[in-house]
Amino acid sequence: MGLIRADEMTLNIGPQHPSTHGVLRLKVKTDGEIISEIIPVIGYLHRCFEKHCENLSYEQVVPYTDRCDYIAAMNNSFGYVLAVEKMMDIKIPERVEYIRVIMAEYNRIASHLLALGTFGLDVGAYTPFLYMFRDRERILDLFEITCGARLLYNYMWVGGVSHDLPVGFVEASYRFLDEFEKNINEYHNILSYNKIFIERSADVGILPKDVAIDYGVTGPNLRGSGVKWDLRKDEPYSIYDRFKFNIPVGKGLMGSVGDCWDRYWVRAEEMKESIKIIRQALDKMPRKGDVHEALPKKVRPPKGSIYFRTESPRGDLGYYIISDGKPSPIRVKMRSPAFTALSVLSEIATGWMLSDILVILGSLDIVLGEIDR
Protein backbone atom coordinates (compact mmCIF):
# COMPACT_ATOMS: atom_id res chain seq x y z
CA MET A 1 0.00 0.00 0.00
CA GLY A 2 1.14 3.54 -0.76
CA LEU A 3 1.93 5.95 2.01
CA ILE A 4 -0.72 8.56 2.89
CA ARG A 5 0.77 11.96 3.52
CA ALA A 6 -0.68 13.60 6.63
CA ASP A 7 -0.42 17.06 5.06
CA GLU A 8 -2.20 16.05 1.83
CA MET A 9 -5.96 16.25 1.31
CA THR A 10 -8.16 14.86 -1.49
CA LEU A 11 -11.18 16.90 -2.59
CA ASN A 12 -13.91 16.03 -5.07
CA ILE A 13 -15.17 18.75 -7.40
CA GLY A 14 -18.28 17.62 -9.30
CA PRO A 15 -19.78 15.78 -11.03
CA GLN A 16 -22.70 18.06 -10.04
CA HIS A 17 -20.90 21.39 -10.15
CA PRO A 18 -21.84 24.42 -12.27
CA SER A 19 -18.26 25.17 -13.30
CA THR A 20 -17.13 21.72 -14.43
CA HIS A 21 -18.88 22.39 -17.77
CA GLY A 22 -20.69 19.07 -17.68
CA VAL A 23 -20.89 15.99 -15.50
CA LEU A 24 -17.18 15.82 -14.73
CA ARG A 25 -15.62 14.78 -11.43
CA LEU A 26 -12.20 16.10 -10.49
CA LYS A 27 -10.26 14.30 -7.75
CA VAL A 28 -8.00 17.06 -6.52
CA LYS A 29 -5.04 16.35 -4.28
CA THR A 30 -3.92 19.44 -2.39
CA ASP A 31 -1.26 20.53 0.04
CA GLY A 32 -3.19 23.27 1.79
CA GLU A 33 -4.41 25.54 -1.03
CA ILE A 34 -1.81 24.31 -3.54
CA ILE A 35 -2.75 21.63 -6.11
CA SER A 36 -0.42 18.64 -6.27
CA GLU A 37 -2.46 16.51 -8.70
CA ILE A 38 -5.80 16.44 -10.52
CA ILE A 39 -7.38 13.18 -11.67
CA PRO A 40 -10.35 13.73 -14.03
CA VAL A 41 -13.03 11.06 -13.61
CA ILE A 42 -15.24 10.71 -16.68
CA GLY A 43 -17.98 8.34 -17.80
CA TYR A 44 -21.03 9.92 -16.17
CA LEU A 45 -22.49 10.91 -19.56
CA HIS A 46 -21.50 7.85 -21.60
CA ARG A 47 -24.01 7.12 -24.39
CA CYS A 48 -22.12 4.38 -26.31
CA PHE A 49 -22.13 6.49 -29.49
CA GLU A 50 -19.42 4.49 -31.23
CA LYS A 51 -21.06 1.13 -30.44
CA HIS A 52 -24.50 2.43 -31.45
CA CYS A 53 -23.14 3.25 -34.92
CA GLU A 54 -22.58 -0.43 -35.64
CA ASN A 55 -26.36 -0.95 -35.49
CA LEU A 56 -27.39 2.14 -37.46
CA SER A 57 -27.39 2.97 -41.14
CA TYR A 58 -24.90 5.62 -42.26
CA GLU A 59 -27.71 8.19 -42.51
CA GLN A 60 -28.95 7.41 -39.00
CA VAL A 61 -25.52 8.11 -37.49
CA VAL A 62 -25.79 11.87 -38.26
CA PRO A 63 -28.17 12.76 -35.36
CA TYR A 64 -25.85 10.89 -32.99
CA THR A 65 -22.84 12.96 -34.09
CA ASP A 66 -24.89 16.06 -33.24
CA ARG A 67 -25.23 14.83 -29.67
CA CYS A 68 -21.52 14.31 -29.06
CA ASP A 69 -20.49 17.95 -29.13
CA TYR A 70 -23.96 19.41 -28.74
CA ILE A 71 -22.51 22.95 -28.62
CA ALA A 72 -21.17 22.59 -32.18
CA ALA A 73 -23.46 20.00 -33.76
CA MET A 74 -23.05 21.38 -37.30
CA ASN A 75 -19.28 20.91 -37.15
CA ASN A 76 -19.57 17.37 -35.79
CA SER A 77 -21.90 16.16 -38.53
CA PHE A 78 -19.88 18.09 -41.15
CA GLY A 79 -16.79 15.97 -40.49
CA TYR A 80 -18.76 12.73 -40.51
CA VAL A 81 -20.59 13.31 -43.81
CA LEU A 82 -17.36 14.45 -45.48
CA ALA A 83 -15.73 11.15 -44.46
CA VAL A 84 -18.59 9.06 -45.87
CA GLU A 85 -18.74 11.15 -49.05
CA LYS A 86 -15.03 10.63 -49.62
CA MET A 87 -15.48 6.88 -49.26
CA MET A 88 -18.31 6.95 -51.81
CA ASP A 89 -16.59 9.50 -54.10
CA ILE A 90 -19.65 11.78 -54.10
CA LYS A 91 -19.30 15.19 -55.78
CA ILE A 92 -21.15 17.85 -53.80
CA PRO A 93 -23.04 20.69 -55.58
CA GLU A 94 -21.42 24.11 -55.27
CA ARG A 95 -24.34 25.68 -53.42
CA VAL A 96 -24.26 22.90 -50.81
CA GLU A 97 -20.53 23.41 -50.26
CA TYR A 98 -21.03 27.09 -49.48
CA ILE A 99 -24.07 26.46 -47.28
CA ARG A 100 -22.12 23.92 -45.22
CA VAL A 101 -19.21 26.31 -44.66
CA ILE A 102 -21.61 29.10 -43.65
CA MET A 103 -23.36 26.86 -41.13
CA ALA A 104 -20.11 25.44 -39.75
CA GLU A 105 -18.65 28.91 -39.20
CA TYR A 106 -21.86 30.19 -37.62
CA ASN A 107 -21.75 27.25 -35.22
CA ARG A 108 -18.07 28.00 -34.51
CA ILE A 109 -19.05 31.53 -33.48
CA ALA A 110 -21.98 30.26 -31.39
CA SER A 111 -19.71 27.73 -29.68
CA HIS A 112 -17.04 30.34 -28.91
CA LEU A 113 -19.66 32.75 -27.55
CA LEU A 114 -20.77 30.09 -25.08
CA ALA A 115 -17.15 29.26 -24.20
CA LEU A 116 -16.20 32.90 -23.60
CA GLY A 117 -19.39 33.73 -21.72
CA THR A 118 -19.12 30.79 -19.33
CA PHE A 119 -15.40 31.44 -18.90
CA GLY A 120 -16.30 34.94 -17.78
CA LEU A 121 -18.73 33.40 -15.27
CA ASP A 122 -15.96 31.14 -13.96
CA VAL A 123 -13.87 34.23 -13.26
CA GLY A 124 -16.80 36.12 -11.74
CA ALA A 125 -17.99 38.32 -14.63
CA TYR A 126 -21.74 37.93 -15.13
CA THR A 127 -22.74 40.74 -17.54
CA PRO A 128 -20.57 39.66 -20.52
CA PHE A 129 -22.24 36.23 -20.36
CA LEU A 130 -25.64 37.85 -21.00
CA TYR A 131 -24.30 39.92 -23.89
CA MET A 132 -22.71 36.89 -25.54
CA PHE A 133 -25.83 34.78 -25.12
CA ARG A 134 -27.80 37.57 -26.77
CA ASP A 135 -25.69 37.25 -29.92
CA ARG A 136 -25.64 33.46 -29.75
CA GLU A 137 -29.45 33.43 -29.74
CA ARG A 138 -29.46 35.38 -33.01
CA ILE A 139 -27.34 32.68 -34.64
CA LEU A 140 -29.67 30.00 -33.32
CA ASP A 141 -32.54 31.99 -34.86
CA LEU A 142 -30.86 31.60 -38.26
CA PHE A 143 -30.50 27.85 -37.68
CA GLU A 144 -34.13 27.60 -36.62
CA ILE A 145 -35.54 29.31 -39.72
CA THR A 146 -33.36 27.03 -41.86
CA CYS A 147 -33.94 23.58 -40.38
CA GLY A 148 -36.36 24.08 -37.47
CA ALA A 149 -33.89 23.29 -34.67
CA ARG A 150 -31.81 25.38 -32.29
CA LEU A 151 -29.40 22.85 -30.76
CA LEU A 152 -29.40 19.44 -32.51
CA TYR A 153 -29.92 19.90 -36.23
CA ASN A 154 -29.52 16.72 -38.33
CA TYR A 155 -28.74 19.25 -41.06
CA MET A 156 -25.65 17.88 -42.82
CA TRP A 157 -26.65 14.84 -44.86
CA VAL A 158 -24.49 12.48 -46.91
CA GLY A 159 -24.56 14.17 -50.32
CA GLY A 160 -26.23 17.42 -49.26
CA VAL A 161 -28.16 19.20 -46.52
CA SER A 162 -31.66 18.68 -45.18
CA HIS A 163 -33.03 22.11 -46.18
CA ASP A 164 -32.05 24.89 -48.56
CA LEU A 165 -31.55 28.34 -47.09
CA PRO A 166 -34.91 30.07 -46.58
CA VAL A 167 -35.91 33.34 -48.21
CA GLY A 168 -34.34 36.24 -46.34
CA PHE A 169 -31.48 34.20 -44.81
CA VAL A 170 -28.73 36.00 -46.72
CA GLU A 171 -30.06 39.46 -45.88
CA ALA A 172 -30.54 38.51 -42.20
CA SER A 173 -26.97 37.19 -42.15
CA TYR A 174 -25.47 40.43 -43.43
CA ARG A 175 -27.42 42.42 -40.84
CA PHE A 176 -26.27 40.15 -38.02
CA LEU A 177 -22.61 40.17 -39.12
CA ASP A 178 -22.54 43.96 -39.35
CA GLU A 179 -23.83 44.32 -35.78
CA PHE A 180 -21.93 41.41 -34.29
CA GLU A 181 -18.56 42.60 -35.57
CA LYS A 182 -18.96 45.77 -33.50
CA ASN A 183 -20.02 43.74 -30.46
CA ILE A 184 -16.73 41.81 -30.39
CA ASN A 185 -14.89 45.06 -29.66
CA GLU A 186 -17.41 45.66 -26.87
CA TYR A 187 -16.56 42.25 -25.40
CA HIS A 188 -12.88 43.19 -25.40
CA ASN A 189 -13.66 46.42 -23.56
CA ILE A 190 -15.83 44.90 -20.83
CA LEU A 191 -14.02 41.58 -20.33
CA SER A 192 -10.80 40.89 -22.26
CA TYR A 193 -8.95 43.93 -20.97
CA ASN A 194 -10.69 44.17 -17.62
CA LYS A 195 -8.06 44.47 -14.87
CA ILE A 196 -9.57 41.81 -12.62
CA PHE A 197 -10.10 39.40 -15.53
CA ILE A 198 -6.48 39.78 -16.61
CA GLU A 199 -5.20 39.19 -13.08
CA ARG A 200 -7.27 36.00 -12.80
CA SER A 201 -6.37 34.54 -16.22
CA ALA A 202 -3.03 35.94 -17.47
CA ASP A 203 0.09 33.95 -16.53
CA VAL A 204 -2.20 31.25 -15.06
CA GLY A 205 -2.33 27.63 -16.28
CA ILE A 206 0.46 28.03 -18.82
CA LEU A 207 0.51 25.33 -21.51
CA PRO A 208 3.92 25.32 -23.27
CA LYS A 209 3.79 24.46 -26.96
CA ASP A 210 5.91 21.30 -26.57
CA VAL A 211 3.60 19.97 -23.84
CA ALA A 212 0.54 20.78 -25.98
CA ILE A 213 1.99 18.86 -28.92
CA ASP A 214 3.04 15.91 -26.74
CA TYR A 215 -0.52 15.58 -25.37
CA GLY A 216 -2.14 15.93 -28.81
CA VAL A 217 -3.86 19.20 -27.87
CA THR A 218 -5.35 20.97 -30.89
CA GLY A 219 -7.62 23.86 -31.85
CA PRO A 220 -7.68 27.15 -29.91
CA ASN A 221 -5.86 25.52 -26.97
CA LEU A 222 -2.88 24.70 -29.23
CA ARG A 223 -3.01 28.04 -31.03
CA GLY A 224 -3.18 29.79 -27.66
CA SER A 225 0.26 28.27 -26.98
CA GLY A 226 1.62 29.99 -30.07
CA VAL A 227 1.37 27.12 -32.58
CA LYS A 228 -0.12 28.36 -35.86
CA TRP A 229 -1.94 25.19 -36.91
CA ASP A 230 -5.47 25.03 -38.29
CA LEU A 231 -6.75 22.25 -40.56
CA ARG A 232 -8.81 24.76 -42.55
CA LYS A 233 -5.50 26.32 -43.66
CA ASP A 234 -2.91 23.56 -43.34
CA GLU A 235 -4.99 20.64 -44.66
CA PRO A 236 -7.97 22.35 -46.35
CA TYR A 237 -11.17 20.34 -46.73
CA SER A 238 -14.49 21.17 -48.43
CA ILE A 239 -13.90 24.62 -50.05
CA TYR A 240 -11.90 26.31 -47.28
CA ASP A 241 -9.00 26.87 -49.68
CA ARG A 242 -11.14 29.50 -51.46
CA PHE A 243 -11.36 31.85 -48.49
CA LYS A 244 -8.97 34.42 -47.06
CA PHE A 245 -8.68 34.44 -43.28
CA ASN A 246 -6.01 34.56 -40.58
CA ILE A 247 -5.05 32.15 -37.80
CA PRO A 248 -4.86 33.96 -34.42
CA VAL A 249 -2.27 32.65 -31.96
CA GLY A 250 -1.50 33.45 -28.33
CA LYS A 251 0.56 36.58 -27.75
CA GLY A 252 1.36 36.46 -24.03
CA LEU A 253 -0.34 39.57 -22.70
CA MET A 254 1.64 39.47 -19.45
CA GLY A 255 4.68 37.74 -20.89
CA SER A 256 3.82 34.02 -20.83
CA VAL A 257 2.39 32.59 -24.06
CA GLY A 258 -0.12 29.77 -23.58
CA ASP A 259 -1.94 30.95 -20.47
CA CYS A 260 -5.69 31.03 -19.79
CA TRP A 261 -5.98 34.54 -21.20
CA ASP A 262 -4.34 33.49 -24.48
CA ARG A 263 -6.77 30.60 -24.94
CA TYR A 264 -9.65 32.99 -24.31
CA TRP A 265 -8.25 35.65 -26.64
CA VAL A 266 -7.69 33.23 -29.53
CA ARG A 267 -11.38 32.21 -29.45
CA ALA A 268 -12.47 35.85 -29.40
CA GLU A 269 -10.28 36.65 -32.43
CA GLU A 270 -11.38 33.49 -34.26
CA MET A 271 -14.92 34.84 -34.28
CA LYS A 272 -13.68 37.76 -36.39
CA GLU A 273 -12.09 35.33 -38.85
CA SER A 274 -15.31 33.30 -39.04
CA ILE A 275 -17.14 36.51 -39.92
CA LYS A 276 -14.71 37.00 -42.82
CA ILE A 277 -15.32 33.46 -44.08
CA ILE A 278 -19.11 33.77 -43.84
CA ARG A 279 -19.08 37.10 -45.71
CA GLN A 280 -16.99 35.62 -48.52
CA ALA A 281 -19.21 32.54 -48.70
CA LEU A 282 -22.39 34.63 -48.85
CA ASP A 283 -20.89 36.76 -51.63
CA LYS A 284 -19.67 33.83 -53.74
CA MET A 285 -22.46 31.30 -53.12
CA PRO A 286 -24.51 30.34 -56.21
CA ARG A 287 -28.01 31.73 -55.79
CA LYS A 288 -29.62 28.66 -57.33
CA GLY A 289 -29.10 24.94 -57.01
CA ASP A 290 -30.76 21.77 -55.76
CA VAL A 291 -29.37 20.90 -52.33
CA HIS A 292 -30.69 17.33 -52.69
CA GLU A 293 -29.20 16.75 -56.13
CA ALA A 294 -26.31 14.55 -54.96
CA LEU A 295 -28.16 12.61 -52.24
CA PRO A 296 -27.53 8.91 -52.94
CA LYS A 297 -30.52 6.57 -53.01
CA LYS A 298 -28.55 4.14 -50.85
CA VAL A 299 -25.62 5.02 -48.64
CA ARG A 300 -23.36 2.01 -48.93
CA PRO A 301 -19.67 2.88 -49.06
CA PRO A 302 -17.45 0.25 -50.68
CA LYS A 303 -15.37 -2.09 -48.52
CA GLY A 304 -12.51 -0.27 -46.88
CA SER A 305 -11.71 2.26 -44.21
CA ILE A 306 -11.08 5.98 -43.90
CA TYR A 307 -9.83 8.47 -41.36
CA PHE A 308 -10.99 12.02 -42.01
CA ARG A 309 -10.52 15.06 -39.80
CA THR A 310 -11.87 18.59 -39.68
CA GLU A 311 -11.33 21.70 -37.55
CA SER A 312 -14.16 21.86 -35.03
CA PRO A 313 -14.44 24.77 -32.55
CA ARG A 314 -12.56 22.59 -30.06
CA GLY A 315 -9.87 21.41 -32.48
CA ASP A 316 -8.93 18.39 -34.57
CA LEU A 317 -12.08 16.24 -34.83
CA GLY A 318 -11.51 12.92 -36.59
CA TYR A 319 -13.69 10.03 -37.75
CA TYR A 320 -12.34 6.56 -38.46
CA ILE A 321 -14.91 4.47 -40.36
CA ILE A 322 -14.69 0.84 -41.50
CA SER A 323 -17.13 -0.38 -44.16
CA ASP A 324 -17.91 -3.86 -45.42
CA GLY A 325 -20.19 -2.58 -48.17
CA LYS A 326 -23.39 -3.00 -46.14
CA PRO A 327 -25.84 -0.27 -44.99
CA SER A 328 -24.24 -0.06 -41.53
CA PRO A 329 -20.58 0.57 -40.68
CA ILE A 330 -18.51 -2.13 -38.99
CA ARG A 331 -16.80 0.48 -36.86
CA VAL A 332 -16.97 4.22 -36.21
CA LYS A 333 -14.33 5.75 -33.99
CA MET A 334 -14.30 9.42 -33.06
CA ARG A 335 -11.16 11.38 -32.19
CA SER A 336 -12.22 13.97 -29.61
CA PRO A 337 -10.22 17.22 -29.22
CA ALA A 338 -11.94 17.87 -25.88
CA PHE A 339 -10.61 14.54 -24.53
CA THR A 340 -6.99 15.50 -25.21
CA ALA A 341 -7.59 18.97 -23.75
CA LEU A 342 -8.90 17.43 -20.52
CA SER A 343 -5.92 15.06 -20.42
CA VAL A 344 -3.51 17.98 -20.04
CA LEU A 345 -5.41 19.57 -17.12
CA SER A 346 -3.30 18.10 -14.31
CA GLU A 347 -0.10 19.01 -16.16
CA ILE A 348 -0.92 22.70 -16.32
CA ALA A 349 -2.86 23.04 -13.05
CA THR A 350 -0.30 21.46 -10.68
CA GLY A 351 1.26 24.09 -8.44
CA TRP A 352 -1.62 26.52 -8.76
CA MET A 353 -4.20 27.27 -6.09
CA LEU A 354 -7.65 25.75 -5.63
CA SER A 355 -9.27 28.98 -6.79
CA ASP A 356 -7.44 28.65 -10.13
CA ILE A 357 -8.74 25.17 -10.99
CA LEU A 358 -12.02 26.25 -12.54
CA VAL A 359 -10.37 29.13 -14.40
CA ILE A 360 -7.89 26.73 -15.98
CA LEU A 361 -10.61 24.15 -16.74
CA GLY A 362 -12.89 26.81 -18.26
CA SER A 363 -10.09 28.04 -20.52
CA LEU A 364 -9.80 24.56 -22.09
CA ASP A 365 -13.45 24.68 -23.32
CA ILE A 366 -14.35 21.00 -22.92
CA VAL A 367 -17.71 19.40 -23.74
CA LEU A 368 -18.42 16.19 -21.84
CA GLY A 369 -20.76 14.81 -24.52
CA GLU A 370 -17.74 14.57 -26.80
CA ILE A 371 -15.45 13.15 -24.12
CA ASP A 372 -17.98 10.52 -22.91
CA ARG A 373 -18.91 9.52 -26.43
Explain what the structure shows.
This protein is of the alpha+beta class and 373 residues long. It has one domain: Cytochrome-c3 Hydrogenase, chain B. Helix content is 48%, strand content 13%. The chain contains 15 helices and eight strands. The strands form three sheets. A three-stranded antiparallel beta sheet has the order 1-2-3. A three-stranded antiparallel beta sheet has the order 6-7-8. The protein has a two-stranded antiparallel sheet with strand order 4-5. The model has no long low-confidence stretch (mean pLDDT 93).
Low-confidence stretches: none
Query: In the CATH classification, which architecture applies?
Result: Orthogonal Bundle
* CATH homologous superfamily label: Cytochrome-c3 Hydrogenase, chain B
Q: Give a count of the beta strands, DSSP E runs of length 2 or more.
A: 8
CATH topology category name: Cytochrome-c3 Hydrogenase, chain B
**What structural category do the secondary elements indicate?**
alpha+beta
Instruction: Return the string of H and E elements.
Output: EEEHHHHHEEHHHHHHEEEHHHH
- Helical content band: 40-55%
Q: State the name of the first-level CATH class.
A: Mainly Alpha
Continuous helix count:
15
| Largest sheet descriptor | 3 strands, antiparallel
Strand content: 5-15%
Q: How many structural domains?
A: 1
Average predicted confidence as pLDDT: 93
